[in-house]
Amino acid sequence: MTDNDTQPLDVAIIGGGPAGLTAGIYASRAGLKTLIIEGSTVTSQITMTDLIENFPGVPEGTSGFDLVESFRKQALSFGARTATADVSAVRKKSLGGFEGWELVCGGKTFDALAVVVATGSAWRRLGAEGEERFIGRGVSFCATCDGPLYRNREVVVVGGGNSAIQEALFLTHFASKVTVIHRRDRLRADDVLQKRAFANPKIEFAWSSVVKEIRGGDLVEGVTIAPAGGEGKERVLPAEGVFIFVGLTPNTAMVTDVVARDAQGYITADADMKTSAAGIFAAGDCIHKTLHQVVTACGDGATAAYSAQLYVEALKGESY
Ligand SMILES: Cc1cc2nc3c(=O)[nH]c(=O)nc-3n(C[C@H](O)[C@H](O)[C@H](O)COP(=O)(O)OP(=O)(O)OC[C@H]3O[C@@H](n4cnc5c(N)ncnc54)[C@H](O)[C@@H]3O)c2cc1C
Questions:
Q1: Which atom, in ligand 1's list, is nearest to the CA of 85?
Q2: How far apart are CA 135 and CA 265, in angstroms?
Q3: Which of 90, 105, 227, 259 is the most exposed place for a label (fewest CB within 10 A)?
Q4: Spatial separation of the C-alpha atoms in residues 13 and 146, rounded to whole Å
């Protein structure tokens, strides 16, 4: 593919995380003209964590950033191209006699016969007073990015799942104290993470509590928490950092009217990663499924690319 090539892409992949890059490896290795579009304002969720120890074949563990870089290198080695842009819409378009798709990214568009949506998800907000005002001034959704700023300071982590506990453990490398605020009386995180957190002297828990307000002047100085049921006294926890890990919302706005999604906005895809629209496939954290992890995102990406390959070959009359 050259820059002045006017032919449509065989496959445009939206997303440069594990799902999109694996789709890129498979599609380009199969000889398809492949472009991977990575978001300019949204990053891959996995680059936010410093230690992945459950990706098969990497027993010593690795950082999310390094893992994604190795996926990217592999996709590029087979001829995939990448672009950085936020796709805002995907529209049907006739491409030289074929029914294809146009991807809209600001003032720019890309034409493709098939599309793989691998856009992942983004952290949900708490909805607490002060939350928006203090983003970047004490409120963070990424311990790997911002943890080192809180050396010898007190921080809170909101949430009780794997990400919350994994990031709380990471924050103990820097912070003097990490209080995990969880709306239930027990954690949802994997047993191995729970054991590590309970054994860590820097981690305390505020059980059955919700954050009502994030307080401070220019920067965060603390949080007001209240009993999750509503009954009981509020209290203030001093904290200079508030790390929020309370669930995710899929990044699927660009295909709202194009493919079927569930009530939470996750794309519904079948076992072959086909969506309700012919020529659009989906993979990774943006689809409705039970386990949102790197290994499942990679599997989805490979399947989506293979399905896209069969689709494009059939469209061009090249199936065998
Ligand atoms: C803190 C944390 C710790 C985690 N730890 C682990 C772990 O230890 N092991 C594990 O297996 N999983 C872990 N996960 C889960 C893992 O990160 C995800 O399952 C995985 O990243 C999903 O890959 P994906 O490619 O579907 O989405 P992502 O990795 O989120 O990638 C999405 C891609 O889509 C792009 N994008 C989004 N919107 C647009 C748009 N409009 N236009 C263009 N591009 C767009 C983004 O830029 C990004 O490149 C963790 C997640 C977090 C947040």
A1: 43
A2: 24
A3: 227
A4: 30
- Does 272 qualify as catalytic in the annotation? no
Nearest to 214 by CA among 319, 139, 308: 139
Domain ranges of the chain: 9-122+248-316, 125-244
CA dihedral over 234, 240, 246, 252, signed as positive or negative:
positive
- Which residue CA neighbors atom 45 of ligand 1 most closely? 39
Helical residues (DSSP H) of 48-205, grouped into ranges: 64-77, 143-146, 162-171, 191-199
CA dihedral 110, 113, 116, 117 (to 10 degrees): 50
* Residue 80, Ramachandran bin (φ over 0: left; ψ between -120 and 50: alpha; else beta): beta
Residues 152-177: tens digit of each pLDDT: 999 999 999 999 999 999 999 999 99
Considering the entire predicted model, what is its pTM? 0.86
SS3 call for 261: strand
Per-residue pLDDT tens over the stretch 112-163: 999 999 999 998 999 999 999 998 899 998 887 789 999 999 999 999 999 9
Minimum CA distance residue for ligand 1 atom 18: 293
Pick the CATH number of 125-244 from 3.50.50.60, 3.40.50.2300, 3.30.1330.50, 1.10.260.40: 3.50.50.60
Cβ < 6 Å from ligand 1: which residues? Answer: 14-20, 37-39, 42-46, 48-49, 52, 54, 86-87, 118-120, 163, 166-167, 251, 254, 284-285, 292-295, 297
The span from the CA of 37 to the CA of 294, in Å, is 19
Both structure tokens of 203: 């981690």
142 among known catalytic residues: yes
Q: Tell which residue, 226, 222, 200, 198, has the closest CA to residue 212.
A: 226
Question: Counting every residue, how long is the chain?
Answer: 320
Q: What CATH code is assigned to 9-122+248-316? A: 3.50.50.60
